[in-house]
Amino acid sequence: MMRIAIVGAGAIGCAVGAALSEAGHDVTFCARQSFARLSARKADEPAKTFPARVVTSASDIAPAEWVLLCVKVYQVPSAAEWLKGAVGPGTKLAVLQNGVEHRERVEPFVPPHTAIVPVVVELPVSRIAPGEVVWRRIALLSVEDDAAGREFCALFANSFITASAVEDLLTVAWKKLCLNTPGGAILALTGQPMAVFHKPGIADVARTILRECVAVGRAEGAKLDDGLIEPLIAFFLKAGPDEGNSMYADRMAGRQTEWDARNGVIVRKGARHGIATPVSATLVPLLAALDP
């Protein structure tokens, strides 16, 4: 049994917290709002429920063996006090976020030499109440195949989440970014769910975003090719017309969105490699302007 602190009790945080509780670990949530019960349910299956331990003040958290950072990318600075209390000597920090800059975004907020484990999350999940989530289709976490990554995977043994150590996490992360980048931007900017992909010209915009993402990812060392593009477009077109994504949900709720981690990164890294990204460069200031 490991002592684990989860910073962020949103959809991902509650889902992984439930899995870790199912695996028998000592889990503490660091969150603004307390809740007494943790419930995770796969759609059309019975819920798994556990007692929840929640601390709402950073002064009440002690260093843990593992810390899982599950806040949105733009919330990392506001989580600094939690990290200060929960990350001690020997703590391993797993970063469960979108994008491809897990280490870069977190390193300024933890002691030097902290073991940081980037985690690529494939877990479609919705938070329906404090401490209560519903997930669909897949529950997979991918990490680097090194000692810390394998230790992270072992945390989820005998739970409903599969954690896998992969040889090429860079490529896995960029493939996930290819999935996230067009849909998040298009839904956030139009304020419409996935049905918008069937409107004239929208799929072509998504194709161009994907071409830019693939080109920059290749320059970064990811094993990507243009053959990824049409299957992803088909995936978007087959989605339920009323489906959304996290950027769409944040936009509709008037919250900040993860435009920088999903779209700004393509412009920044493209410029570093001398790769033109004109569509992404046009979308980024529009997305930024939506933030409250």
Topology record:
Elements: E1 3-7, H1 11-22, E2 26-30, E3 37-42, E4 48-51, E5 54-55, E6 66-69, H2 80-86, E7 92-96, H3 102-106, E8 115-122, E9 125-129, E10 132-135, E11 140-144, H4 147-155, E12 162-166, H5 169-190, H6 202-220, H7 229-238, H8 246-252, H9 259-273, H10 278-290
Parallel strand pairs: 1-2, 1-6, 2-5, 3-10, 6-7, 7-8, 11-12
Antiparallel strand pairs: 3-4, 8-11, 9-10
Helix pairs in contact: 5-6, 5-8, 6-7, 6-9, 9-10
What does this structure look like?
The chain is α/β, with parallel strands linked by helices and 292 residues long. The protein is 41% helix and 20% strand. It has helices at 11-22, 80-86, 102-106, 147-155, 169-190, 202-220, 229-238, 246-252, 259-273, 278-290, and strands at 3-7, 26-30, 37-42, 48-51, 54-55, 66-69, 92-96, 115-122, 125-129, 132-135, 140-144, 162-166. The strands form two sheets. The protein has an eight-stranded mixed beta sheet, sandwiched between helices. Strands 4-3-10-9 form a four-stranded mixed beta sheet, with helices on one face. Helix 1 links the parallel strand 1 and strand 2 (26-30). Helix 5 (169-190) packs antiparallel against helix 6 (202-220), helix 5 runs parallel beside helix 8 and helix 6 (202-220) packs across helix 9 (259-273). It starts with a strand and ends with a helix. The mean pLDDT is 97.
